[in-house]
């Protein structure tokens, strides 16, 4: 993803249990914090909810998934867990003879019981569910579940680390991470529940987190978590005593100027996943930072992480040649010998919008997206292209944002103010902020416009860090939609009106949305926009020391327009690296389990498995049982719709 081609979905629909229109409010003008449910996909939780929407739209289409097939991968065993339902299972963790499956929540409204299953895999041909641990109400795990063996002055044993996200507003819900003693997997004991950033005790509960990773260094132990709700989204805690986790550092990309550019398509900058590994003599943290790429920090002193190096998404991308590259660094791991890293680019929609200013001194291409709940450009306009003149319309809200006593909607200039040639569309341009995106589109329709453009807010640029970020968020109310609608960045909004973009100060009570733009009614330059297939994303092979991109790979189907729809989610998700050889095991959602070999700076696929009834793999781990003497280890895949599947690679 970040194709806002699909983004009418986001958090609010799921947080409120709504089955149709999301009710996200676009009321965070400054964007100094991530806010789950604000209609802006800038957290990993919202990326998942975007994927869920895409998956729902894909269900029931012809075929529904790729045909069943396998090569060099054999199915050893599987178990469908109790309570399994579509998209119920998330990540998988494993230690010894037991695997742990994250249960995001039962698909009820508002939501059911989240928690984790315990599966005995001592006989991998016959795995058995042996337990379920429930989370607090409306709390559920998802990404990055892990078992870490600790031996500190305060604790000795195996600890399961999980994240907590929410699917409701029950006061008993928790955020942060939870730690469980799983030394005896049949007698699990909670150690700490819902621990994380509480803003120094000012919040009722820790902020939601998407992923967690723990490690021990000497006699001390630590964990890093993804903060869903703050720009400072790298939270590091000490867990030497896992009963008393303590936040010791909050950091983010704002602390590492060398990692801040270039950014990929959409300029959505947030942490998604991370691992920590001792490489030579240093503890290194590998951060997957969505549109910024991969970042390595030295965490020998976890309270003072030091920037080491970062990667940039290849531009143009190596698979289909698009510029800027799609980005979406989702997850990554070092190889067993630290020579390589494989990183996955998660991508939930195979199209992107091509937006151009076609007249005036600023004529060129700019980033943009299409609101998925408006009339598609491809069906509304001849040739699938919207083009024509523009006019500035202010906020487009029903509220009075400039304090003159008149509704901003009443101040939108009528479409008769614009002259358009036959076949052209008249476009009104609004700024993001204050009211629902849908209210703005409705204002454009009421004024007679064919097309609406909504520019990113002034504050949404994070003081200029992301001048080209664009936000095609969710609808907030029901109305008859007849217009098409596009979102563009703040810089492009200014360029449309031949105005210089400035990024400080951010919006506040004294700085109304659009206050830095020309007077309402100002005519802008002409535009052109259409959509084009740009694939489902892929994986990258990086140099383990420099993070230079050595090679990129995608399944042939994921870069073929014939597979743009009808096969559910074709994105890659996670990679687990073999502990003894240059093999990587990949969960590729509805494209199954994939095995790749990487050496001499190249990636090539050497095995795969897709069940005849289809699969939808989220997590993947490689594991050797204590008594296993086989040549190849087991591959554990968590199927979102059923449970645990166990494979073995049989190739060379």
Describe this structure in words.
This protein has five helices and 40 strands. With 652 residues, it is mainly β. Among the domains are: 4-60 and 351-533, Glucose Oxidase, domain 1 (3-Layer(bba) Sandwich), CATH 3.50.30; 135-251. A five-stranded antiparallel sheet has the order 1-37-36-35-34, with no helix packed on it. It has a five-stranded mixed sheet with strand order 25-30-29-28-27, sandwiched between helices. Strand 28 (427-431), helix 4 (437-446) and strand 29 (451-455) form a beta-alpha-beta unit. The chain starts with 9 loop residues before the first helix and ends with a strand.
Main attributes of the structure:
652 residues, mainly beta, Glucose Oxidase, domain 1, five-stranded antiparallel β-sheet, five-stranded mixed β-sheet, 5 helices
Regions with little confidence, pLDDT below 50 for 5+ residues? 1-33, 58-62
What is the CATH level 1 assignment of the domain at 4-60 and 351-533?
Answer: Alpha Beta
Largest sheet: 5 strands, antiparallel
Total count of helical runs of at least 4 residues: 5
Task: Please bin the fraction of helical residues.
Answer: under 10%
Can you tell me the overall shape? globular
Determine the mean pLDDT. 89
Write out the strand line-up for the largest beta sheet, numbering strands in chain order.
1-37-36-35-34
Tell me the radius of gyration.
24 Å
CATH topology of the domain at 4-60 and 351-533: Glucose Oxidase, domain 1
| Beta-strand residue percentage | 35-45%
Q: What class would the helix/strand composition place it in?
A: mainly beta
Tell me the distance between the termini. Answer: 34 Å
> Architecture of the domain at 4-60 and 351-533 in CATH?
3-Layer(bba) Sandwich
Number of E-state strands: 40
């Amino acid at each position: 993803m970040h194709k806002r081609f699909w983004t009418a979905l986001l958090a609010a629909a799921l947080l409120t249990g709504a089955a149709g229109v999301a009710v996200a409010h676009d009321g965070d003008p400054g964007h100094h914090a991530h806010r789950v449910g604000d209609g802006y996909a800038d957290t990993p939780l919202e990326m998942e909810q975007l994927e869920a929407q895409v998956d729902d739209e894909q269900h029931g289409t012809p075929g529904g998934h790729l045909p069943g097939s396998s090569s060099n991968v054999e199915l050893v065993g599987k178990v469908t867990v109790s309570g399994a339902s579509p998209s119920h299972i998330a990540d998988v963790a494993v230690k010894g003879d037991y695997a742990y499956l994250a249960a995001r929540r039962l698909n009820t409204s508002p939501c059911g019981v989240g928690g984790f299953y315990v599966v005995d895999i001592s006989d991998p041909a016959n795995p058995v569910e042996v337990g379920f641990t429930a989370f607090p109400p409306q709390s559920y795990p998802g990404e990055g579940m892990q078992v870490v063996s600790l031996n500190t002055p305060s604790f000795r044993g195996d600890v399961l680390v999980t994240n907590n996200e929410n699917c409701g507003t029950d006061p008993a819900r928790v955020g942060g991470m939870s730690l469980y003693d799983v030394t005896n997997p049949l007698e699990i004991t909670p150690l700490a529940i819902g621990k994380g950033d509480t803003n120094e005790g000012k919040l009722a509960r820790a902020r939601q987190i998407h992923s967690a990773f723990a490690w021990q260094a000497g006699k001390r132990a630590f964990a890093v978590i993804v903060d869903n709700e703050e720009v400072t989204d790298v939270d590091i805690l000490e867990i030497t005593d896992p009963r008393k986790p303590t936040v010791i550092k909050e950091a983010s990309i704002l602390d590492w100027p060398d990692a801040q550019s270039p950014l990929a398509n959409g300029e959505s900058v947030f942490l998604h996943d991370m691992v920590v590994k001792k490489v030579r003599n240093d503890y290194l943290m590998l951060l997957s930072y969505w549109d910024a790429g991969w970042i390595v920090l030295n965490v020998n002193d976890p309270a003072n992480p030091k920037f080491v190096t970062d990667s940039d998404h290849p531009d143009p991308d190596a698979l289909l040649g698009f510029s800027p590259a799609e980005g979406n660094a989702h997850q990554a791991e070092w190889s067993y010998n630290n020579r390589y890293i494989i990183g996955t680019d998660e991508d939930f929609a195979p199209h992107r919008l091509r937006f151009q200013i076609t007249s005036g001194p600023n004529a060129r291409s700019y980033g943009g997206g299409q609101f998925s709940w408006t009339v598609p450009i491809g069906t509304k306009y001849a040739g699938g292209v919207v083009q024509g003149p523009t006019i500035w319309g202010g906020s487009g809200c029903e509220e009075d944002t400039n304090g003159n006593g008149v509704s901003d909607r009443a101040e939108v200039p009528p479409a008769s103010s614009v002259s358009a040639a036959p076949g052209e569309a008249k476009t009104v341009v609004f700024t993001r902020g204050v009211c629902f995106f849908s209210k703005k589109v409705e204002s454009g329709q009421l004024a007679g416009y064919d097309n609406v453009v909504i520019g990113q807010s002034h504050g949404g640029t994070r003081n200029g860090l992301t001048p080209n970020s664009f936000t095609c968020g969710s609808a907030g109310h029901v109305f008859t939609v007849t217009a098409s609608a596009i979102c563009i960045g703040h810089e492009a909004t200014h360029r449309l009106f031949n105005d210089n973009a400035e990024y400080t100060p951010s919006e506040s009570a004294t700085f109304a949305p659009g206050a830095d733009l020309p007077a309402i009614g100002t005519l802008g330059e002409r535009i052109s926009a259409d959509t084009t297939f740009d694939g489902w994303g892929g994986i990258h092979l990086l140099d383990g020391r420099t993070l230079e991109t050595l090679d990129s790979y995608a399944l042939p189907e994921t870069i073929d327009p014939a597979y743009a729809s009808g096969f559910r989610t074709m994105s890659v998700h996670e990679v687990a690296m073999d502990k003894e050889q240059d093999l990587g095991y990949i969960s590729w959602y509805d494209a199954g389990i994939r095995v790749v070999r990487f050496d001499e700076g190249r990636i090539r696929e050497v095995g795969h498995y897709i069940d005849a009834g289809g699969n939808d793999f989220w997590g993947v781990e490689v594991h050797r049982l204590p008594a296993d003497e086989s040549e190849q280890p087991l591959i554990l895949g968590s199927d979102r719709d059923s449970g645990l599947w166990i494979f073995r690679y049989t190739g060379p």
